[in-house]
Amino acid sequence: MALIVVIAVMSGFESDLKSRILGGQSHVVLMRYGGTLSDYRRVIKDVEKIPGVEAATPFIYTQIMLRSSSGISGAVLRGVDPESAG
């Protein structure tokens, strides 16, 4: 009986952990090396035709600098259009 409870708890923990990790991250990211993807609309249409793909949306991804009263720090900014995000 105790083993069943442990397995059930661990399965729930694994599921929760996966959803937390993947909740803020894409499963697949397509990027062009060294520049912008100018034909992203065509790429999105092609990707959406792939079986199992639930959503595809363009995003911006760039390095930024943040400054506060405690100092300066580098960060990565990733932005999506909420209306097109699945």
From TrEMBL:
Please report the name of this protein according to its UniProt entry.
MacB-like periplasmic core domain-containing protein
Q: Which residues form a coiled coil?
A: none
Signal sequence interval, chain numbering: none
Q: Which organism is it from?
A: marine sediment metagenome
Q: Which GO terms describe its cellular component?
A: plasma membrane protein complex
**What are its GO biological-process terms?**
lipoprotein localization to outer membrane
Which InterPro entries does its entry note? Lipoprotein-release_system
